[in-house]
Amino acid sequence: MVKTALLIEGLNGGLTINYAQQAERAGFDRVWIPEIIFNDAVVPATAAAVSTDRIEVGTGVVGIWGRSPVVMALEANTLNEVSGGRMVLGLGTQARGYVDYWHGRTYERPLQAMREYLTIVRSIVDLEPTTYEGEIFSIHGFQLVAQPPPRRLPIHMAAVGPKMIQLAGELADGVLGYFYSLEYLREVVMPNLAIGAARSGRSLDEFDVGVGLPANLGNGDQSVEELRGQIVMFATALGSSPAYATSIEMAGFGDEGEEIRDRVGAGDIQGALATVTPEMIDALTLSGTVDNARKRLAEYEAGGATSVVFNPAAPNNYYPLYGGHLDGIDLPEFDFGEYVRVIETTMNAMGG
Predict the structure, then answer these.
(1) pTM of the predicted protein model
(2) Percent of the chain with pLDDT over 70
(3) Which residues sit opposite 215 in a β-bridge?
(4) Which residue, of 2, 36, 88, 103, is most buried by count of CB atoms within 10 Å of its CB?
């Protein structure tokens, strides 16, 4: 059966622990805690791990430019140890602006950078003497002094485009994708994972194919309507990844996606939101009733997914995903109380 995960984002430490505990009681298999502008991922993940008993805890995701591979490996090994082997390390290249403007690094050759970073971290957490001379990341003579971990640390890669998906199939233990339509999963993700796995001569039998989607459950048609902004946000995020638009097109909504981009480009955000249909929302989110969500889980499992990530989305919300995205558009005010309401109704629906 496909595993379920909950993404916990934008919350303080106390709420993160609380919702990790609630997710465990609701039957979720994993929580993912990202790292962008709200908090780091490792400290809340550690707090969540020591406050729960069964649920896996993942960093979903940590950018490879914010820490050296050695520091990342040390933190991941510690979290894997204190969690009793329930840690999953999620790594991503993140967006160019995060790297260039916030971390003082140069966003360059993301495929090569991820290959080198993951290779180094994998070697260190496997307690191997590690020397690696890369084009971007290098390390000489490092050895992690630690007891063998409770289980080998799983490393998952964030990937949306075909080349990064291939790299995940080649090197990682799982892929953490986002906004994959069913058609994109079947026709792009699975074939490219197989290409990557063939490069390293391995099977994908134990590989975790994770699909993350905006989520809003528990209030029927209202839950569907409240996700319009999420569709607009990803339909226009070509600077983050053109694959989002491809995913929409492959689901059968290419004309709508193009119209949304045209209307946003003209400053007509209300027209863009009105272009989004309930059918489009259903194809690209986890929304509406719990029965519909379970039907969607079964469809994704049949398409090759082994885990599905529920990302509760603040209702009627959209925001820039990178510098220049949604420029000139009036953004809605973020309502924290309504965001918490969606988290709780989504968890309660799935745990009912």
Answers:
(1) 0.96
(2) 97
(3) 286, 312
(4) 88
